[in-house]
Amino acid sequence: PPLANAISRRSRMAKMAEKKSNPKEGPATAAGANTKLQMLASGAIAGAVSRSVTAPIDRVKILYQVNPNRHFTLIGAMKSLNMIFKNTGLPGLWRGNTLAVARIAPFSAITYTSFSMYEVALAEADTFGPDSAISIRFAAGSAAGATATALTYPLDLVRARIAAHWSLQPRYTSFFSGVQEIIRKEGVSSLYAGLAPTMLGIIPYAGVSFAVFETLKAHMRERQDGEPISTPTRLLCGGTAGLVAQTATYPLHVVRRRMQVCYCYTFPCNFPPCTSVKIRAHTHSPTPTLSFTFRERSK
Fold first, then answer.
1. Residues 202, 145: contact at Cβ < 8 Å?
2. Average pLDDT of 119-141?
3. CB 179 within 8 A of CB 154
4. Pseudo-torsion of CA 258, 263, 267, 269, nearest 10°?
5. Which among 260, 253, 248 is positioned nearest to 61, based on CA atoms?
6. How confident is the model at residue 209 (pLDDT cuts 50, 70, 90)?
7. Above 60 in pLDDT, residue 72?
8. Torsions phi, psi for 289 (to 5 deg)
């Protein structure tokens, strides 16, 4: 039996070494195992499905983010969902979702594809030195998020304005009509209103999200002797990563939405239309806080 146990242990160690030398999953090797087209398609489909499933909740979230007169409660959010349904029917809960999918599909595709490219490049350059997997994941995720955001930002802005419009009729009939109206009334630069706080938020958000997600996956694979992890485990890792990243950067998401939307509001709003925001951290007070100073957009 001792000999059999030793042989079995050696067999398991050899199997794990083989898997480590030729892994079947992970962003760093996905480019070798799958084509970039497959990665783009997978990212796009994943983003589109997740956005469509959560569209009603996301619309109510935007309504609370952009209106300083709304104070969030769970009961109030449910009442808002019910009111939207009564006034505009089921399609009203998914208002702007087509545009959201049109934005999130390329956003997710670009993010996941460029993450693999950035991760490999940083690892090959040995930028962070040995034992720097988490740092590489954070940097690659940040760069991927910034790249995708810069390329899809106008879609996000128009979609936010459509979702935040409370009246029975949509503010814009389509993305192109929205772009035309924004350029005509506010200028081309308004298509990128709120880009600065968005970048300031997406860099830590994407970095933390990818670092936590990939680290949790690697930890779970080690616990399973290198075996591929199950779909529920992936969902748990992804949910945990999203929760941590979203909580850490949420104030900047609020600033982004208000800068995107508040210019076109029809109800009284204490938040002025603005073109820039100055963010200051107060770390010397007993409770560290962030303060925001907005500069009004010229008429």
1. yes
2. 85
3. yes
4. 50
5. 253
6. very high
7. yes
8. -140, 170
Q: Tell me, what DSSP letter sits at residue 96?
A: T
φ, ψ for residue 247, nearest 5 deg: -65, -40
Which range, of 5-19, 103-117, 185-199, 200-214, averages the lowest pLDDT? 5-19
Strands, E assignment, 237-273: none
Separation of alpha carbons 10 and 52, rounded Å? 48
Please state, in angstroms and as integers, the Cα–Cα distance from residue 134 to each residue in 117, 129, 207, 293, following that order: 16, 11, 10, 34
Is residue 236 exposed (0-12), middle (13-18) or buried (19+ Cβ within 10 Å)? middle
Q: List the Cα angle 208/45/216 in 5-degree steps.
A: 30
- CB within 8 Å of 8: residues ≥ 6 apart: none
> How far is residue 253 from each of residues 21, 62, 99, 113, 260, measured CA to CA in Å?
41, 10, 19, 24, 11
> Quick one: angle between helices 133-164 and 97-125, nearest 10?
160
The pair of structure tokens assigned to 98 is: 């087509």
| pLDDT of 176 over the 90 cut | no
